[in-house]
Amino acid sequence: MVGTDRSPLMQAESRGHTPYRVSVNQYSEFRERGFLTVRGLISHDDVQELNNHMDDVLAGRESFPGVPPAPEHLPPNDIANYWERVHMLHRVSPLHERYLLHPRILDVLEAIIGPDVLALQTMLFFKQPGQPGQGYHQDSYYIPTLPDTLCGAWLALEPATEENGCMWMVAGSQCEPIYPDLDGVTENGDWGLRDIQPIAAASHPDESLNGLARVARKYAGKEVQVEAQPGDVVFFNGHILHRSHANRSKTQSRHTFVGHYCNARSLVPWNYKKNSYEGESANYLHILARGSTHLPYAQPNFDTPCAANRPDLYGKRPSRVQPVSMTPTDKGITVLAPDLE
Question: Tell me, which fold does domain 8-338 have in CATH?
Answer without folding.
Answer: Jelly Rolls (2.60.120)
